[in-house]
């Protein structure tokens, strides 16, 4: 096929003027609402708070809002800190077929660019849709092998940031191509960063947002990149996946399938690879009325990352517990859900949750592994102390495109996560702006 980078650049630029279907605009607003819901709880937590303080002296002038401290600053500064904050509490969106969280690297630089130079909500929706298109399709071209070592949100997120920012900055197709090309050589993010304890994981989309914005700013100023960098023999796909990219498969429905209309919005505040098993146990609990003390054993069969990333029977820290099937299953049974409270210090040490963890086992199910990443299923066998054995095959996750959160569900999630930060009144006002407003949000009363 022809050069995939040039195809993507032309497609991205088309989002400036193409008819914006009401359905697509609505889905883009849903993505914004979900991103703000993930962002605002993370604004008071490390690593964003630590980074904001460390970089305060070099903030410089600008009109882009850093929501971590509520102050204006340069585009790249706001993009870095807002993207980092929005990946901290693990409530951000997922594009299932690429194993990727597109909002946290894509929306912050696009919003910051509009705040910096002016523009309205429609421009933001178009830029975000373009960024999702570019990055999600690059993600599809390199998956699933890319995810063996790389954190997709840190890598392909750089392309989403570059494309969205370049569209806001008015780049033409040639400049867009160079923005994407430069973004490729900036991309990074290793899985080991979240297989062990540490604060690096939220920094991945932070870096992607800032690096992609830099690539776009450079391209708008005439900086060029290598236009064969996606598919070349030593390019992005070759370096980070099994081959030089499944580009034809990733582009086969380009222009017909709009990626932002197929987002997964999280219903649990933990790693998405645990969701299917949580949904299965939650359904069984409602159907059969058992409590945590009634459970003798829970066995989870899952796809690759359910085992390799989320089988953590000894998880202790907040970071580890967000990626532990054992901990999250205990939190679901004891607390009734895996929300922000599940990772409060008192619950990380909760003996009732800790008592569940040794009863939970995880193994790879080859059939489910073969269906990944387009399917995120689980097989659960739950044994009760009275001898009953309950089996459940969970073919998808609540929040996936085939089992979506409704607009009401999404609004409720937003209010739950944002009202404690802003207050009920300001949270409702922001939600109204995001659903129906023509202006992009500015400073908030954090």
From TrEMBL:
MmgE/PrpD N-terminal domain span: 8-243
Give a Pfam family name: MmgE_PrpD_C
**Domain MmgE/PrpD C-terminal, residue spans:** 268-428
Gene3D superfamilies given for it? 2-methylcitrate dehydratase PrpD
- Per the record, the domain of life is Bacteria
InterPro entries assigned: MmgE/PrpD_sf, MmgE/PrpD_sf_1, MmgE/PrpD_sf_2, MmgE_PrpD, MmgE_PrpD_C, MmgE_PrpD_N
Q: What does the similarity note say?
A: Belongs to the PrpD family.
Please identify the protein, giving its name as recorded. Answer: MmgE/PrpD family protein
